[in-house]
Amino acid sequence: MKSHFRIDEVTYSHLLGRLNDLHVTDKRGSLPDFTFFHKDEWLADTAVIEELTRHKGEWQVNLVFAHTNNPMRFIRRQITSYSCPRKASLFASLMRRLAAKDQRGTQAISINDIFVPQN
Fold first, then answer.
1. β-pairing, 58-67 with 46-55?
2. Contact, 61 vs 96, CB < 8 A?
3. Which of 4, 35, 70, 79 has the fewest CB atoms found within 10 Å of its own CB?
4. Confidence band (pLDDT; 50, 70, 90) for 55?
C-alpha cells in the first residue's frame, strides 16, 4: 500500500503564499495579444501534421498547423477521439489531407526545425 504524501508546514505555508500571489502575476490578455488569431494570413503557408495521443482510454486525433517559414508559429486543435487506434489513424490522415491547403504534401516541416538538440 502506498503511503500518503506528506509535506512539512514551512513548505506548505510557502506554497500557499505563492498561490495567493498568483493574482498579481496573472493578467488578462490585451487586444494586441490576439492579433495572432485575427491576422491569419500565415495559415495559408502551413504544413498540417496529424497527431494521435491516447487519453483516458481513447485515441485523440489532433491536427497541428505549423508555419513553414517559422515552425514555432503553430496552432494545435483537437478534432475527435476514437476507441480503435486503426480508425483514429485513418481518420487523422483523412482530416490532414482535407485540412491541408497543399493537399499533395509538398509543404512539410521537419521535427528538427522545431527542436534543436543541445550539445
1. antiparallel
2. no
3. 4
4. confident
β partners of residue 61: 52, 80
What is the reported pLDDT for 27?
67
What's at 64, amino acid-wise? V
Residue 116 has pLDDT above 60, yes or no: no
Distance CA 110, CA 115 (A): 9
Residues 23, 39: Cα–Cα separation, whole Å: 30
pLDDT of res. 103: 60
- Those residues whose C-beta lies under 8 Å from the C-beta of residue 56, and which sit 6 or more positions away, are none
Q: Cα separation of 38 and 29, whole Å? A: 14
Residues 6 or more apart whose Cβ sits within 8 Å of residue 49: 63, 64, 66, 96, 109
Q: How far apart are CA 65 and CA 49, in angstroms?
A: 7
75 vs 73: CA distance, rounded Å = 7
Q: Which three cell numbers stand for residue 102?
A: 497543399
* Contact predicate 67/39, CB 8 Å: no
